[in-house]
Amino acid sequence: GNWAFGAHVDLRGARRPMILGWAIYAVAYVGFGLADSAWQIAGCFLLYAVHYALVEPAEKAWVAQLVDEQQRGLAYGWFNFAIGIAALPASLLFGWIYQTWGALMAFSWGAALAFAASIMLLRVRVVKVE
What we know:
By secondary structure, the protein is mostly helical. It has helices at about 1-10, 15-35, 40-65, 70-100, 105-125. It has one domain (about 1-125). It has 5 helices and no strands.
């Protein structure tokens, strides 16, 4: 899936797959919060896999579009650094919400953030500075 969506991104651009991918992530996370059987959890994991296959190549392509070719390595480094550095506090916050208010609230919070990201991406217009 990742290679197929990556090829699509190369032909059509990164923005729409990112919007769709983050919306799918939101649906999957709400599903995780509501799931009460193994088949429902499996379905949520399938949705999550589709999200990942859509978003990962699109995000990397977008990073490449935003910087000059000579700075792509540095840009990818900062991109991955930002994701990595945000993962720990995000995981701690998710765990705290889960322990305090339960699975539905924790997954709903993640879904709300993903949905908000999708909405914000609808409004973003990328203009590369030359």
